[in-house]
Prior knowledge:
A: three-stranded antiparallel beta sheet; 4 helices; B: 78% helix
Amino acid sequence: MLSKELVAASSKPLILAVLADGESYGYELIQRVRELSGGEIEWTEGMLYPVLHRLEEDKLIESEWRDSDNGRKRKYYFLSKEGRKSLRREREQWMTVHQTLTKLWKLKPRSI
Amino acid sequence: METQTPFDLNRSLEQWRGQLAHSPAIKRDNLAELEVHLRDSIAGLQAKGLSEEEAFVIAAKRIGQPVQITAEFGKVNMAAVWLNRLQWIVVGGFSFSVATIVVSSARQLTVPINRLTGHAWLKGFYPAVWLVTLLVIGVWFAFARWLMSREFRRPRFLNSPIQLITGLAICCGLIRLWPLLVDFAIIKYFAQPGVYVGRTANLWMVFAQQMFFEVALPLCLLAAWKIRYGRQ
């Protein structure tokens, strides 16, 4: 299980990355992240929405209420141009951390 | 054996909504979105073989405690939260000014009553003045309590602080204006020219002060909050 701090820090790139695959709504987004992480990343589901709304205020994503297949109205989110740029920056930063840790841990595998 | 009341999903959803609708941090749109999520989550759990009641309990737990959710939404909807607080401050200030006016009218009433009865026993009339004050405060608290009670769904206009504050500001202005109008009427129709002029000028000064503190200041604060937190 991820720590609270890491969950908070990783929510932005995770949301942007899921939306880069195509538009989605809150419930589906959570399901997708849970599935991909093998259940390791568990959000308090209600907390996702304030994060989405903040990203929307920052113009990284856009939203629209739309009828879904089963007739239920849902709020769909999709990535904006600015969001794509932001995702690229996030990706670089996370990759930097990832590569650094990989190198470090490969150099000293026994000391972990 | 105990008799079990059958589970009513709509009633449970209604109760769940009530807990969140109460908070100014959660807008109508936010609540609608959370409810769709809850319904999706319930449907997903039911598909896995859970009963409607079990699915509801787990789905509600996964969404999070209302306290947690409202706190988190409050950070995003900061402007709405502060506007709501400001709204209650203004409502409080407004009620206070109404109470002041009611109390001072009660005091003024003692003059004609004394004159009519020929007694001075109503001189000052302080117990009654304090009684009226207490009554007004009591009525105000009862009103506030009722307004904030969880079951009560606020009418739409109370959810729009801008409308409410503007309305209250106008009411405040009108209430503050009437002593001036009475004074004007006295000068125009009853008094000798020049007699009341000094007092009127003084009243206008008081009126200007009142308008500044009760109308201009709240509206400026409102505008400032909107500029500062309206976007972020």
